[in-house]
Design a protein that fits this description.
Growth Hormone, Chain: A
Length: 203
């Protein structure tokens, strides 16, 4: 007698989010990470100009920053598979905060290696965040889960540069960059809480 085919898994319904709180915390981490990244990209040219770099040199340094950012995204994906997304998020956010503070007091000769490392940590977090989002959403509803995640983070991209520019005008460039470093560190407890999974699905 032929073996019967395995029963198909029921399709996920609703938004497909397992454990709403960990998913919401992941979104908040993504919002903070986006604000820190966009704020740093806004303020760093002014920091570099203050260190004496001419506009062409600033452009070349940003090309370096984005090139190593691409490397960070590439490397942090496999690292997230190997060590888990939360471990990668914590590592890259701590690195982002420390490198922002280091850039504030670095001599010009140290700018190139610091910016290269900053590109890796600044951009690498997003690969681990995508992994964490996927772990909190049913496979059949991941398009919706990513749509929800991106809606909040893209809204942050629209708002953060304006808000951080006003902040820097009010308190000055070094305090504003220090506050961005504090924002990166603020993600650490949230990422730890977002580690928790769950079988509950929001309908």
């Amino acid at each position: 007698m032929p073996a019967s085919a395995p029963a198909a898994r029921p399709a996920a319904r609703g938004w497909g989010v397992r454990a709403p709180l960990p998913f919401a915390l992941t979104v908040v981490v993504g919002i903070l990470d986006t604000a820190v990244r966009d704020g740093a990209l806004l303020l760093l040219p002014f920091l570099l100009a203050g260190l004496g770099f001419a506009p062409p040199a600033v452009g070349a340094l940003f090309a370096l920053l984005f090139a190593f950012g691409a490397c960070g995204k590439f490397v942090c994906g496999p690292l997230s598979d190997r060590f888990g997304p939360v471990a990668v998020i914590v590592t890259t956010e701590v690195g982002t905060a420390l490198l922002l503070l280091a850039l504030l007091g670095a001599p010009a000769l140290w700018i190139v290696p610091l910016l290269a490392l900053f590109g890796v940590t600044m951009s690498g977090t997003s690969s681990a965040l995508f992994d964490l989002v996927a772990r909190h959403v049913e496979a059949g509803r991941r398009a919706r889960g990513y749509g929800l995640y991106y809606s909040f983070t893209q809204a942050t991209t629209a708002i953060a540069p304006f808000a951080i520019g006003l902040l820097a005008d009010g308190v000055g460039l070094p305090p504003a960059l220090a506050l961005l470093a504090a924002g990166a560190l603020a993600t650490l407890p949230l990422a730890g809480l977002a580690r928790a999974g769950g079988r509950e699905v929001v309908r």
